[in-house]
Amino acid sequence: MNRVWKPNVTVAALIEREGRFLLVEEETEDGLRFNQPAGHLDEGESLVAACTREAAEETAWSFNPTALVGIYQWPRPQGDITYLRFAFSGELGAHEEGRTLDAGILRAVWMTPDEIRASADRHRSPLVWQCVSDYLAGRRFPLELLRHYD
Predict the structure, then answer these.
(1) DSSP 123
(2) Closest CA to 48 of 69, 74, 34
(3) Which of 77, 91, 85, 93 is CA-nearest to residue 134?
(4) In angstroms, rounded to a whole number, what is the distance separating the alpha carbons of residues 47 and 111?
(5) Structure pTM?
(6) More exposed terminus of the chain, fewer Cβ within 10 Å: N or C?
(7) In this predicted model, what pLDDT tens digit does every residue of 14-69 receive, in sequence order?
(8) Is 150 within the bounds of a domain?
(9) Cα–Cα nearest to 93, from 131, 112, 65, 134
(10) Full residue range of the structural domain in which residue 20 is found
């Protein structure tokens, strides 16, 4: 059977408050890992809307993307999946107390850049630190780069 290759499109939220970044601790096939609030683009959904949705589902925080930090292509070492990640920064909104987090998400946690770097062996992928590093370097691109047509 010939399989048509295509990347898995994902979004990630870089949410910073008072020098700390909002990450999630999640269950994976490799054990407990840290990641940005992130997930897959749903059919018909814009990248910005997907990022807002994923942040709420995984952290119970509302998030409004205001800039694109970067676009990242990462083939997993197992060779079975390539991720195409769109990472956004933006404005943190309200926290929804008592909201149930997505299945597999144990908790949302605020971490300093040093704590994130020190926990690299528990990152879901190398994109976790790369996105934070790019954010800290000031990378911000206007959302006008992205076009969504219904």
Answers:
(1) B
(2) 69
(3) 85
(4) 25
(5) 0.94
(6) N
(7) 999 999 999 999 999 999 999 999 999 999 999 999 999 999 999 999 999 999 99
(8) no
(9) 65
(10) 8-144
